[in-house]
Fold these 2 entries.
Entry 1:
Amino acid sequence: MKTNVNLQPFNSFGFNATAKYFVEINTIDDLRQLIKTPEFKAERHLILSGGNNVLFTNDCFDGIVILINNKGIEIVHEDEGDVIVRAQAGEDWPEFVRFCVGQGWHGVENLAHIPGKVGAAPVQNIGAYGMELKDSFFQCHALNLTTGETRIFTNEVCRFGYRESVFKHELKGQYLITSVDFLLHKQSELKLEYGNIKAYLEQNGMTQPTLQQLHDAICAIRDAKLPDVKQIGSAGSFFKNPVISAEQFNAIQQQYPDIPHYPDAEGMVKVPAGWLIEHSGPSAGSGFISWKGWRDEHVGVYEKQALVLVHYGGGKGQDIVNLSQRIQKSVAEKFGIKISPEVNCV
Ligand code: EPU
């Protein structure tokens, strides 16, 4: 176990924070050893996967940071139509998706290019372009951090929701996901309906795209909208898209007829937080300035996607916290809607 490790390389915002203890897990045995140590029993812990959805708000994490790095991809079942593929938690998510697409397996292609590792994907049920992890999630294996026992979690038990799972609530901090099994299909219809996927493909001469072409198109669409974390620190979407009542939505739509929206199964309406943020700003009224593209010294709102807060370097996690609170306040004042962070603030 290392001490006083700088976490800057391990969080995509690129903030400096020091971990009191830091341990890298390459095998399940490493993990079983770790949980028996006196340090583990005495200290709080943080499970770090790719560090793509975490904001360090303090200069020091006063506990143990556990970096998940176990690797391996294997087929556990295959028949004429389907395959169940097991990926260890430390596998890189975008590479795993690329691998599946390369094999001709359908089910995760719209989740291409989402930075992170496999083990973190179920925790917040990652989603993009009309697909969510839960659609292909078969089960996962997780280790109980108190008893060391492993347990299988089926799709149902995980209680997936929009960026939600049991691992963010009742079981928070209790289990560490060690591998995930995906049920993928050798043939399936491609999901092209979301946003500008179809338009992008048609513009590039692809009216009947292949699985690989769809994957590559999604990578290109994401690249055009979202910052490359190697250049600019960010954690992707900072907020979740809020879900509001139809009455509240209708009132807003009267004033803003172009507001994008997605009806919810329960008669509610999901509204893109990016749109709400773009239409709010640090200064309202006649001198209106939008948050989109707004920049303080070290942090700001990404110019191509207002849902993404960015760190240009030299700042602190607290700068992002302050900015996010200002944004929340102005969205609440203008639209009466509370937006909540998607990112895990520690
Ligand atoms: N919009 C604006 N202004 C903005 C951003 C968006 O008006 O600055 C509008 C867009 O024009 C569009 C709508 O809002 O009409 C939705 O935008 P987009 O398709 O970009 O998706 P999003 O709702 O902003 C969600 C996910 C993303 C995911 C995309 C694509 C959440 C919190 N975010 O964003 O996920 O890539 O859909 O499916 O649900 C992430 O979680 O880190 C992430 C990037």
Entry 2:
Amino acid sequence: MWLRCGCAASLRVLASPLRVLGLRRCNTAAFMPESTGFGGVSGRSGLQEFSVSSSESFWAAVARHRLSWIRPFTAVQDCDLSRGRIRWFEGGKLNVSVNCLDRHVHTCPDRVALMWERDEKGSEVRYTYRELLEMTCRVGNLLRRHGVKKGDCVTIYMPTCPLAVASMLACARIGAAHNVVFAGFSAEALAERIRDAQSSTVITVNQGIRGGKILELKKTVDTAVQSCPTVQQVFVAMRTDSPVAMTARDIAMEEVRQQREMLKEDVVCEPAAMNSEDTLFLLYTSGSTGKPKGLVHTQAGYLLYAALTHRYVFNYHDGDVFGCVADIGWITGHSYGVYGPLANGGTTVLFESTPVYPDPGRYWDMVERLQINQFYGAPTAIRLLLKFGDEWVNKYDRSSLKTLGSVGEPINTEAWEWYYRVVGEERCPVVDTWWQTETGGICIAPRPSDPDAEIVPGMAMRPFFGIKPALMDTEGKVISGNDASGALCLAQPWPGMARTIHNDHQRFMETYCQPYPGYFFTGDGAYRSVEGYYQITGRLDDVINVSGHRIGTAEIEDAVCPAVAESAVIGYSHDIKGQAVFAFVVLKKNVDVEEADLSRQLNGIVSEKIAKYACPDFIQFVQRLPKTRSGKIMRRVLRKVVELDLDSLGDLSTLDDPAAVQEIIQGHRELLSK
Ligand code: AMP
């Protein structure tokens, strides 16, 4: 009896972990095929731990499996964050456009690569992988024939369209770097970026069209290049039928379907063999000074990271239609409109319009028409659409949707819940993705995770593979416990990170590497919850210190009030408290409440949800907030208004609607005179 019992018991003990291991191993391998070489790692959390503790083995396997190499790499990484030295996959040679196009043309030439959702609703155009490769090769040959060579930098000033994507990939094909400038930037802003990038070639279109309005892009380029002595040639494609004045430096390129110069070109273009660490692109972003920073991303590491995050954060599978509505002028458009989906052989939507053109149902009409499976948008648009009510969403069939993504700023709980409940009908996970131009791809997001793992509204939550976040206290020490806030750093390098700032490695060091030696400083603050989940609390320059208590502007903004559509909170100097809180508030449409009552209500909610010290000293009700065209609230401008420093409002040309500022200044005067 004893023996049998003992045998049975020990068998059970032995058998059950083996069975569990076997099962898990099988699931983990199906989830990530490379994991079979990771020595028994199982489950998503096991993979995450392995990717951080055995970072070299993880990235080596993934890079071998997911990229096509002309020559294999000899070293996985050679990084030293304290010296700002970041190198991945050295010794390897590859071509990014081959990875994004040719290898898919071999296996599925007629698969749709791009769905171009033009500004004119219902006139979408599809391009197969074969067509996109042909267009890319023609542009590549055209550039080569006009003297563009490996190592040059081509500035692209175009709306989101297939020819812009082909231009980016054509640069990659011939070994030139690209510098895409958002086509809403002013001539001055464009010129500054062309000069800093030392571009001799610009690609643009005659006119853009967005929200039914014509944008004179070629004219903007004409003005910009007047102060850019390096520019020798401007290629001009035709987005509309209106001819534009051409100068001696302009070359008519025209849309692929009626190509002129491009038609002369061969549809075969020999890809350049690029080193892993050659520059793929520059992308300018704002820093704390007035001068934009040209962040440098390189070939292999960036592409791999964009592809892996696209596949796992959004649970993208072959055959899915991926709908990222970001403009190609921003990093989100680069990584999740172009490189990530194309490296994965996916179908990606290029969205040229606005969320409210011709009406607030535009996104959801597009979801139904294009059968979008993953929708990736910005909280600012979600908040805007929320104001118009559920009927604009419910009009359309959204049953194709599987995952909803959010990026760019913290998504407040009300917007998150509306997105989840109304748009996703409570069946699609909402992934709040935290990352930056500097990180190249998503670093913190609720997915991937174990299936059905909880998602907390408004939290980015879990680090991606290879990402090790660290929170720092005010003395620069690592905070070890949970339920803590601090400066968000990344404790080890990952392949997608920016390598430097173009022409200014010193600034790269000072901004990202020196504040916390040995760590990459993100400039953001974060809270780590009791459970170990991360929540971004906002830029550290937006953190307010009220009477010695730190409070994130995002935290106050998130204190939802049913009547508020959106708000922007800033800190301003206060004689007694050091800093105090000033809130700009946009009300929902048709709200009929006395402002004084509403102020009381808001203060009540803030003191209830956070603390009394976080209550705004001033609340100004405004019609709209000053925003960049990518939807970011320009807090710098609001701060200047509050500080009555109107002479240094700075460059307002990047604002979506500069008139909003005048309204706010006027309202502020009235508020002070009350
Ligand atoms: P950009 O480089 O222009 O994409 O801006 C990156 C910055 O946007 C980050 O440093 C954050 O401050 C903010 N950001 C981006 N995504 C999120 C997010 N999911 N939650 C909170 N803030 C975000």
